[in-house]
Amino acid sequence: MEGIGTRLKSERKRLDLSQQELGAIGGIEANAQGLYERGKRFPNAGYLGAIAEAGVDVLFVITGTRKVLAVEAVTAGDMKLLTELDGLPDDVQDDIKRLVSTLFIADAQV
After folding, report:
1. Boundaries of domain holding 90
2. 32-56, pLDDT tens digit by residue?
3. What percentage of the chain reaches a pLDDT higher than 90?
4. Are 51 and 26 in contact (CB under 8 A)?
5. Any residues with CB less than 8 A from the CB of 96 and at least 6 apart, and which?
6. Average pLDDT over residues 18-32
7. Which residues contact 106 (CB under 8 A, 6 or more apart)?
8. Burial level of 10, CB count in 10 A (0-12/13-18/19+)?
9. To 10 degrees, the CA torsion angle through 101, 73, 58, 87?
10. Are residues 8 and 53 in the same domain?
11. Are 44 and 95 in a shared domain?
12. Same domain for 30 and 58?
């Protein structure tokens, strides 16, 4: 069975990053990145949050499942919200994404 390390490595390769590059994004050294990919150590939430911002599918890394919301499941209210968010300045969008991520992490710890 494929573990977190194998999935993390596949995401790194999908993004065409070296261990050193992904490690730097996550705030760790390349040797620690290698340990993560070999399943000898496990990443913490701070690392996962940082690499998620770089495009790593963290849900896939942790669970092995890629979930895509079907277009049919998006409501008119969802579309209105997404359209309004899309119209905000990039820095405000980034702040909102960080807020949502923080709330998600806090909720998962409860």
Report:
1. 71-109
2. 999 999 999 999 999 999 999 999 9
3. 55
4. yes
5. 85, 88
6. 95
7. none
8. middle
9. -50
10. yes
11. no
12. yes
